[in-house]
Design brief:
Strand order of the largest sheet: 3-4-2-1-5-12-11-6-7-10-8-9
Number of strands: 16
Number of helices: 11
Strand content: 15-25%
Order of helices and strands: EHHEHEEHEHEEHHEHEHEHEEHEEEE
Radius of gyration: 24 Å
Helix content: 25-40%
Shape: globular
């Protein structure tokens, strides 16, 4: 059965409805999922009037619960009233309340297992008093890691939506190790990498220039990288951020850990404006387009739906990859810790052998002696 994907409509005055509708009707989305939009058909109709003729005859399958969703249909759960004031292109308190209502209903169904993943259209951060990432982290198990993805380019952040003035106090050894651990596990479980390589960016210009421009690299970031290596994580750096992307150094790694929002997202969006915002580390799968409400082009039929469509496809990819990973690691061989001749730790998997009765493995080639 196709997985049911919850899609929140986001800000009713932004480009959310536009990119959702364009994504669903101009792609192969219906072949791999049953999408359920959390919003309002009457509000959506006002956005549809701003689009081309090919969208004017849209019909909705209005449902009360995701279990009623049908294949190849625009399934919609009503989350707010038909008479909601819509002023396309302008932020409003009504739009904030509607966006939050849509998200809360979708998350309730996600917690109850009625939908398998969440894709969120952009909203005004005022609606949640912060971003989606932090809001979701308070409601689902796990620790959040914000990661932008586009093909083989993946950029994760130590600090998400915080002011520049707050960044230095949040760059700690413990926090960097935690983010590296989350990123490493996500690359394995969500992206199918056996031994991912992670680049860590410096905080200061020229990576601190041996302490001349700042000591965070020497006192915090480098020790964090070494500690992560001790845990088996292939982390490297810290690399000066200014030339890292322009020199295409990022192509040598599976992911990059940036210290703060703009350090990572400016080069990412310069390289690719159709990426996906993925919340790693949580018990749920959540993706989003990597753009905002775009009030300046809302209602003008100018929004590019590529990022939203990629977010939908990525949600399915991660669901499948997680299922494979969990199945393959459900019953790992136990191991014992030993040390080598130089005192370095190593793991040895237990070779099960029985000496009496029943089937037994005679050697590591798993030859079975039925005595």
């Amino acid at each position: 059965m196709k997985p049911i994907i919850a899609i929140t409509a986001g800000d009713t005055n932004g480009v959310g409805y536009e990119v959702i509708i364009k994504s669903l009707l101009n792609g192969y989305v219906f072949e791999i999922m049953r999408p359920v939009i959390y919003g309002n058909a009457a509000v959506a109709k006002q956005h549809i009037q701003t689009l081309g003729e090919e969208y004017r005859n849209i019909t909705w399958n209005l449902i009360d619960s995701p279990e009623q969703a049908k294949d190849s249909r625009l399934n919609l759960i009503t989350c707010y009233t038909d008479n909601l004031p819509v002023n396309i292109g302008s932020p409003s308190e009504d739009a904030n309340k509607a966006a939050k209502a849509s998200l809360e209903r979708a998350c309730r169904d996600l917690k109850e297992g009625k939908v398998q993943a969440l894709v969120t259209a952009p909203l005004n951060k005022e609606a949640l008093k912060g971003g989606h990432t932090e809001w979701l982290a308070e409601r689902f198990e796990g620790e959040q890691l914000m990661m932008l993805c586009a093909g083989n380019l993946r950029v994760a952040l130590v600090c998400n939506h915080v002011s520049i003035a707050e960044i230095p106090s949040q760059i700690t050894e413990e926090r960097i190790v935690s983010k590296l651990t989350l990123l490493n596990q996500s690359l394995k479980r969500d992206f199918g990498m056996e031994k991912p390589r992670i680049a860590v960016l410096a905080l200061n210009p020229h990576a601190g220039d041996q302490g001349l421009l700042g000591k965070e690299e020497q006192e915090i970031i480098s020790p964090a990288i070494e500690k992560a290596k001790e845990q088996g994580i292939w982390a490297f750096g810290p690399y000066a951020a200014d030339g890292f992307f322009g020199s295409e150094h990022y192509l040598q790694f599976d992911a990059v850990l940036a210290m703060y929002h703009d350090q990572g997202l400016i080069p990412f969006k310069t390289l690719n404006m159709s990426g996906v915002n993925y919340t790693a580390g949580l018990s749920i799968v959540r993706t989003s387009p990597d753009h905002g409400t775009a009030y300046d082009i809302a209602g003008k039929n100018q929004a590019d739906e590529s990022s939203m469509r990629n977010a939908l496809f990525m949600a399915i990819d991660v669901l499948r990859q997680r299922a494979d990973y969990d199945a393959n690691t459900a019953n790992p061989l136990p191991f014992i810790e030993r040390t080598d001749i130089e005192g370095r730790p190593r793991r040895e998997f237990i070779d099960f052998k029985t000496t009496t009765g029943g089937n037994r493995f005679e050697n590591k080639n798993t030859q079975i002696d039925d005595k």
